[in-house]
Amino acid sequence: MAKKTAKKTAKKAAKKSAPKKAAKKSAPKKAAKKKSARKPSAAFMKALTPSAALAEVIGTKAVPRTEVVKKLWVYIKANKLQDKTNRRMINADAKLKPVFGGKGQVSMFDMAKHISKHLK
Question: DSSP letters along 5-23, please?
């Protein structure tokens, strides 16, 4: 039994004294590029004039497309025009029917398509 413990300690000592392999050197790192602040797309920020039909809902002032959508949602929610069972559908009232091409009900995903026809 003494021989076994002597062999184990000899192996451990040999492992400790064995020279360690040097880690591979990686290529020198390039300097990180500084990120510039993101600029909003000019197309989204461009003020567009609404048609007469759309102006009845959001006003006559020229506003960016993003603001048009926000104002439409405010109008839709204020007048409770979302369908009760399927909230993705918007029930058009008298002011929204001309904007939605005469349709009585439009999907919220199709809304942008209908709005773009009324912006210049």
Answer: HHHHHHHHHHHHHSPPPPP
In a domain, 27, yes or no: no
- Interior angle at CA 117, CA 112 and CA 120, nearest 5: 110
Task: With CA atoms as reference, report the closest residue to 72 among 120, 41, 40, 114.
Answer: 114
Q: Write the pLDDT tens digit of every residue in 32-49.
A: 677 777 776 777 789 999
Lowest mean pLDDT among 25-29, 59-63, 82-86, 108-112: 25-29
- Is residue 49 within 8 A of residue 120, CB to CB? The reply is yes
Buried b (16+ CB within 10 A) or exposed e, 86-105: eeeebebeeebebbbeeeee
Domain membership of residue 87 (yes or no) is: yes
pTM: 0.64
Q: How many domains does the chain have?
A: 1
